[in-house]
UniProtKB/TrEMBL annotation:
GO biological process terms on file: 2-oxoglutarate metabolic process
Catalysed reactions, semicolon-separated: N(6)-[(R)-dihydrolipoyl]-L-lysyl-[protein] + NAD(+) = N(6)-[(R)-lipoyl]-L-lysyl-[protein] + NADH + H(+)
Name assigned to this protein: Dihydrolipoyl dehydrogenase
Keywords of this entry: Disulfide bond, FAD, Flavoprotein, NAD, Nucleotide-binding, Oxidoreductase, Redox-active center
Keyword Nucleotide-binding (UniProt): yes
Pfam families tied to this protein: Pyr_redox_2, Pyr_redox_dim
C-alpha cells in the first residue's frame, strides 16, 4: 500500500524523551521523523508539567519571601495577584522553549509530523493528520508517548471545578478554597503555588505520609511548614465521594481525623499519579509487549521485545521524570546508531519544588530498611547554617547515607530552600563513587547552603567543625 515517507528512525512523541532522542539520532546521521499530536513540541514537561509549574512556583516564592520579610523590618504590602498576567507570563516562558525546540528540530532536519500516530505493522506507522492519513515506513522506532493524569472513577469530570494538573496550570482564577487529592510531588507543588496566591488549601493523602517515597525526616520539614499555612492536611484519608453543588464541589472524606461533614470547595485538583499512554498507539500491530499497568518493558539498551523498536521515558516505567526520559532518549538513539552504550545510571534524582523543596537521590532509609541493606547516616540541620539563617529559612536538613565499611555515599537527601539545586553535588558524589572524606575535604565556599553537604560529611566522620 501507499507510503508517504520513510526514515531511519521514527520517534513517537515529542516530550523530553522524544525530542532528545530525535535530536541525538539526527546528530548521529540518521534520517529522523518525529511524530507529535500537538502543535507545540516539548510534551508534558514543557507545556503542562515541569516548566509552567516552576514558573508559578517562582512567583509563589517571591510572594512568600516578600510577605515574610515583614517580620524582619521590610514591609511590602499585600501583593495583588493578576491571574491573567501571571498566566500570560507563564505561557510566554513555555512558548519560548517550545519554539526553541521547533527551530532546533529544523536545524537538524528532523521532520516533524503533527498528528496522532499508531503502529500498523512492525515497520510502519499511520498518522492521522489535519491533511488526512499519512503512512510512514521506518527502520527503527522509538516510542516516547509519555503518560497522562490518572482519573478517579465516578468523579464528575465534566464539572468546571474539577481539574487535573493541566487545569491547575491554566490558572483561570484564584479559587478561595481548594481541595488537593494526592499529597505527592505534583499535588504539593500546585498546593504550594495556590497557597501563595491566596487560596486556602486542604490536602488529602491516602498514605500515612506526604511524598511517600521520600524519607520521613525529610518530608517532616515540608510538612511542618505547610501544616501551618494550609487549612488542613489529612493523611490515611480518601475522598470517597465528590458531588457537584452548583458551582462548588462537595467532598466526603474518610480516614484519620477527617471531618464527618462533607466539605465544599471552589476547586478540586486530582493529583493521584500518572498512567502510561501505551494502550492507544497500536503497539499490538508492531508486536510490542505492554505490561498489565500499560508500561512497555525495556532492557538496558531501551529495547522492547521487538529488537528494532525502543521505548523511553514515562511510558517505560517509574520514575516518571523528565531527566530520566531524556537520558534514556540519548541511549536509544545511540544504540540505534550502533554505539555501545546502555542506560546504567547510579540514580535518578527526585525533587519536589515545594516550599521548602525536598530532594533525594540514591538509597533512602525506607528502601535500605525494607531491603535489609546496612547503612549509616549523618544529618546536618540547617539551624546551624549561617547562610540558612541569613535567608531567614533555617528549616532544612542535609542528610548523607553511606556504607558503614567503606564510607562511600549510597544515598542522600536535602530539605530546604534550593534543595533541588544542592542535590546535584550528592548525585555526582554517588556517580563518582565518592566517600565521606572526599566530601568533607572538599572546600566549600562560605557562607553557602552547599556547605551543609561538607558539614554532613564531617558529621559522619565524627569531625564536625563548629562553623557558622
Ligand atoms: P511526555 O512528556 O508525556 O511526552 C509524550 C508526548 O507524546 C506528548 O507530547 C504526547 O502528546 C505525545 N503522544 C502520545 N501519544 C501520541 C500518539 N499516539 N501520537 C502522537 N503523539 C503522541 N518531571 C521532572 O523531571 N521535573 C519536574 O519538575 C516535573 N514537573 C511536573 C509537573 C507536572 C504538573 C506534571 C504533570 C509532570 C511533571 N514532571 C516533572 C514529569 C514530566 O513532565 C514527565 O516525566 C516527562 O514529560 C516525560 O517525558 P516523556 O518524553 O516520556 O513523555
Amino acid at each position: 500500500s501507499r507510503i508517504d515517507g520513510e526514515c531511519d528512525t521514527l520517534v513517537l512523541g515529542a516530550g523530553p524523551g522524544g525530542y532528545t532522542a530525535a535530536f541525538r539520532a539526527a546528530d548521529l546521521g540518521q534520517k529522523v521523523i518525529l511524530v507529535e499530536r500537538y502543535a507545540a513540541l516539548g510534551g508534558v514537561c514543557l507545556n503542562v508539567g515541569c516548566i509552567p509549574s516552576k514558573a508559578f512556583l517562582h512567583a509563589a516564592r517571591v510572594i512568600t519571601e516578600a510577605d515574610e520579610m515583614a517580620g524582619f523590618g521590610i514591609r511590602m504590602g499585600k501583593p495583588v495577584i493578576e491571574a491573567e498576567n501571571l498566566r500570560t507570563w507563564k505561557n510566554h516562558v513555555v512558548k519560548k522553549l517550545t519554539d526553541g525546540l521547533a527551530s532546533l528540530a529544523r536545524a537538524r532536519q528532523v521532520q516533524v509530523v503533527q498528528g496522532t500516530g499508531s503502529f500498523t505493522s512492525p515497520h510502519t506507522m499511520t498518522i492521522q493528520t489535519a491533511e488526512g492519513e499519512k503512512r510512514i515506513r521506518f527502520v527503527h522506532a522509538i516510542i516516547a508517548a509519555g503518560s497522562s493524569a490518572t482519573r478517579i472513577p465516578g468523579f464528575p469530570y465534566d464539572h468546571p471545578a474539577l481539574m487535573d494538573s493541566t487545569g491547575a496550570l491554566d490558572l483561570q482564577n484564584i479559587p478561595e478554597k481548594m481541595l488537593v487529592i494526592g499529597g505527592g510531588i505534583i499535588g504539593l507543588e500546585m498546593a504550594c503555588a495556590y497557597d501563595a496566591f491566596g487560596t486556602r488549601i486542604t490536602v488529602v493523602e491516602a498514605a500515612p505520609q506526604l511524598v511517600a517515597s521520600a524519607d520521613a525526616d525529610v518530608v517532616r520539614i515540608l510538612h511542618n511548614r505547610i501544616s501551618q499555612r494550609y487549612e488542613a492536611i489529612y493523611l490515611n484519608t480518601r475522598v470517597t465521594a465528590l458531588e457537584p453543588k452548583g458551582d462548588l464541589l462537595q467532598a466526603r472524606l474518610e480516614g484519620e481525623g477527617a471531618p464527618a461533614e462533607p466539605q465544599k470547595f471552589d476547586k478540586v485538583l486530582v493529583a493521584v499519579g500518572r498512567r502510561p499512554n501505551g494502550r492507544a498507539i497500536g503497539a499490538e500491530n508492531a508486536g510490542v509487549r505492554i505490561d498489565e499497568a500499560g508500561f512497555i518493558p525495556v532492557d538496558s539498551e531501551q529495547r522492547t521485545n521487538i529488537p528494532h523498536i525502543f521505548a523511553i521515558g514515562d511510558i517505560c516505567g517509574e520514575p516518571m521524570l523528565a531527566h530520566k526520559a531524556s537520558a534514556q532518549g540519548k541511549v536509544a538513539a545511540e544504540v540505534i546508531a550502533g554505539e555501545k552504550t546502555a542506560f546504567d545510571v547510579q540514580t535518578i534524582p527526585s525533587v519536589a519544588y515545594t516550599d521548602p523543596e525536598i530532594a533525594w537521590m540514591g538509597l533512602t532509609e525506607i528502601e535500605a530498611q525494607s531491603r535489609g541493606i546496612p547503612y549509616e547516616k549523618s544529618v546536618f540541620p540547617w539551624s546551624a547554617s549561617g547562610r540558612a539563617l541569613t535567608m531567614a529559612r533555617d528549616d532544612g536538613l542535609t542528610k548523607l547515607i553511606w556504607d558503614p565499611d567503606t564510607k562511600k555515599i549510597m544515598g542522600g537527601a536535602i530539605a530546604g530552600m534550593n534543595a533541588g539545586e544542592l542535590l546535584a553535588e550528592l548525585v555526582l558524589a554517588l556517580e563518582m563513587g565518592a566517600d565521606l572524606e572526599d566530601m568533607a575535604l572538599t572546600v566549600h565556599a562560605h557562607p553557602t547552603l552547599s556547605e551543609t553537604v561538607m558539614l554532613a560529611a564531617e558529621a559522619g566522620l565524627g569531625s564536625i567543625t563548629d562553623l557558622y
